[in-house]
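Q: What would this chain look like folded?
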Amino acid sequence: MDVVSDAVSAVRIGRPFSNRMQVSGSWCTRLAPYDGAGFHVVLEGSCWLLPDGGAPVSLGTGDVVLLPHGTGHVIADTPADAATVAQAVSFERWFAGHEPLRTRAGSGNVDMLCGKYRLDRSRVHPLMAELPKVVHLPNRVGAHAELRAAVDLLGHELGAQRPGACIAVPSLLDLLLVYMIRAWAARGSGTWPAVLGDPVVAAALRALHSDLAAPWTNNRLAAEAGVSRATLARRFTTLVGRPPMTYLTWWRLTFAAKLLRDTLDPLATIARRAGYGTPYALSHAFSREFGTTPGQYRASATGPSTSTREPG
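A: My prediction, written as structure tokens:
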């Protein structure tokens, strides 16, 4: 595994939900705050996203937007005023057929995908926590080729209703999340884009995440990164915000918590995969970090959902 893959997999629960929205004229609908991440893909036309407490964002054909912290927002055909936004129709009620959008003559057709990723925010990796409230990725020639390809594939799958779409669309949405985070990181603005762009720290993180159960020491990790122990400690601590071995301990316990939540593996197996020699050693460290035992954590954790769709 790598940092981005692990950061995403640690918080993802179940499969993404998605709904296709096709409207025309003048319209305004609200999506309530959500304990997860929301996203929109504009397949055709243009509209506006109005995040709670944020500036309006113009969206055009091929644009993708991620709301990684589940920020409530309105989408509308124009940057609506406060009075119009206050009267916006609930997306869930509209999609369920309980309330019309009250469209009237206005701009052209809009075809977009609106959806959500379910997230467990109890142990969010700092890379995910640093994502801004709105990640807008405009459709620009030559930018983020893999993201553009995923958007095109989504458009084809949704438009043609091909056999196997029920598997293809959720898989493409999982890819979309990774590509959106990659595209944000490529902008180079923020702590974790700097971490991933630093060859020494990135090499150390790749080593840790690729073989979590290895008997890591500062000396061994420094050798893996090709620098002295002092250089690694300085650069890693400065960029990541904690020393290498402190980060390793935190990530091992976070990984163990994910396995407790998502699998039925026995504690001995989880301990081995997370780099602990015995279940007792894992239990002791886990209780100190989480304030509860692994068994109690597993009993209270929310398991993966078998549902693949919900309104909004």
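The chain is about 45% helix and 20% strand.
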